[in-house]
Amino acid sequence: MAAGSAIEQYVGESIDAERAERYLRLVPLERMHAALEEGRVVGGAGAHRFELSVPGGRVRCAGITAVGVYPTHRRRGVLRALMRAQLDDVHERREPAAALWASEETIYGRFGYGLASWSGQIDAPRDRAQFAHPLERSGTIRLVEPDEARTLLPPVWEELMAQRPGVFSRSPEWWELRVIADRKEHRDGAGPKRFVVAERDGAARGYAVYRHRPRWEHGVPAGELRVWEAIGTDAQATAELWRYLLDVDWTARIHANLLPPDHPLFLLVAEPRRLRYRRGDGLWIRLVDVESALAARTYASDGPIVLEIADAFCPWNAGRWRLAGGAVARTDEEPDLRLDVAALGSAYLGGISFRELAEALRVEELRPGAVERADAAFRARAHPWCPEIF
């Protein structure tokens, strides 16, 4: 676990034996890379084994995590060497894609990662959180204990994977150690995790995980409700869950992270600006095997379209690729669009359009109408949503 200590230099934490044991249940030791100098670790990078939801399916994906270089070894090529070893390993394992959350946006583009989704946070005053229209109740909301949550929550997550691109698969260990576990050192002054389930017709239709941070000012409640996750399998369950969360007593504000820009909450509430939504970059995607990654998803139109891809870091991807009827193959045909692999990663989940990339000078249109045709093909029914940072 010495490789994991590199990221400790920046997050103010240390890895003791107990934490190391938990960590290795999520990140296999063989997926950890360490950079050494004279036998001493000076950097590290790890990868989870995931499946990632994509439009129409799933793709095997390396979830990149715990990337760090010691402050003593900055600007010496350590990170580049780690990325080289890690992406080569991902390629050898036949994982078509890699994904990460970027602590700093400028780092990973040079290694072929592209910003693929937007994500944001809300900080809403409870007294201005009325719905635009009265909610007609259906089903029930009930608090459940962790043992029951272990059973009821995973099927809801699986349904989210079927509905939204950008969601990663969760192993039983992930549910136990990341979602259900409630270590006091992670509470930051708040209370224990609470689990609520929205049920209708005898089945769980959604769930929420949250903490309550109580506080009083001048005898008036000034606490905060911190929403970890709130996921519904349909519109009714989503509305029911958020109405519950926005109505919890003894709170002045409701805080939630990692909401996509097309989340239903923005149209459910009467005063969306009161949510104080602040948008930032979300998931970053690296196509490690362009052919396999493109073949893993479905398309809204049949094409054809020819992409000329530049990929200096993983040169096996470089060249011209013809996409037609969901099939992908190398071609000598003249290209319709020219772009690098990072821009293709941005467009892959359907969250960033080719038009946006072209207007940002990230895509070159070589034939009139090619950008529009590419957008028609790559369009997804919903914005990518990854509700948890890994």
Q: Using the coordinates above, name the CATH class of the largest domain.
A: Alpha Beta
Gap between N and C termini, in Å? 17 Å
Average residue pLDDT: 95
Secondary structure category: alpha+beta
Biggest sheet overview: 7 strands, mixed
CATH topology of the largest domain: Aminopeptidase
What strand line-up does the widest sheet have?
7-8-9-12-13-6-14
Overall body shape = globular
Helicity level = 25-40%
Number of DSSP E strands: 20
Low-confidence stretches: none
CATH evolutionary superfamily of the largest domain: Gcn5-related N-acetyltransferase (GNAT)
Task: Please tell me the total number of domains.
Answer: 2
Report the β-strand fraction as a percent range. Answer: 25-35%
Write the layout of secondary structure elements.
Blueprint lengths: L4 H7 L5 H10 L6 E5 L2 E15 L2 E13 L8 H15 L4 E5 L12 E2 L2 E8 L14 E5 L1 H18 L8 H9 L13 E7 L2 E11 L2 E2 L2 E2 L2 E9 L2 H12 L6 E7 L5 H4 L9 E4 L1 E5 L2 H6 L9 E6 L8 E6 L2 E4 L6 E4 H8 L5 H6 L3 E3 L4 H9 L12
Parallel strand pairs: 3-4, 12-13, 16-19
Antiparallel strand pairs: 1-2, 2-3, 4-15, 5-15, 6-13, 6-14, 7-8, 8-9, 9-12, 10-11, 16-17, 17-18, 19-20
